[in-house]
Amino acid sequence: MGGGEVGAYKEALQELLAVKEKERKLKEERWKVIKSLEERKLALEKRKLPEQKANVLAMRAQIAAQKMAFFNESSDGASSVFGGGSGGIHGGSSSFGDGSGGDANGGDI
To answer: What digits encode the pLDDT tens for the residues 38-95?
Structure first.
C-alpha cells in the first residue's frame, strides 16, 4: 500500500464515520419528536379520563333508574300476569288463567 492509498482509505473512513454520526443524530431527533407526540397523546387521554368516568357513571345511573321504573311498573301488575286483568309484564292484559280458552286472535280452539 502506498501513501496515497492510505490517505484515500483514511478519508473514506472519516466520511463514513461522519455519515454514521449524521444518521445517529437524525434518528435521535426523530425519537425525540415521536416521544413528544406520544407524551401529548397520553396527556390528552389523562385529561379525558375524568370526563369519561363521569359519563359512564351518568349512564349507569340512567340505566339503574330505567330498570327501577320498569320493575316498579311490572310489580304493580305482577299478580295479573298469570291471573288476567290489566298490568302484566308489558303493561297489557294477560290471557293466562282468564278462562277464555281461545287462540291468540280470540277464536275458539
So the answer is: 999 999 999 999 999 999 999 999 999 999 999 998 887 655 445 544 544 545 544 4
- β-bridge mates for residue 108, sequence order: 102
CA–CA separation, 39 and 32 (whole Å): 10
* Three-state helix/strand/coil letters over 11-22: HHHHHHHHHHHH
Give dist(CA 6, CA 70) in Å, integer. Answer: 92
Q: CB-hemisphere CA count at 13 Å for 44?
A: 6
The letter for the amino acid at 46 is: K
pTM check: above 0.70: no
Cα separation of 12 and 20, whole Å?
Answer: 12
With cell 444518521, the residue in question is 23
| pLDDT tens digit sequence for 4-18 | 688 889 999 999 999
Q: Measure CA 48 to chain center.
A: 13
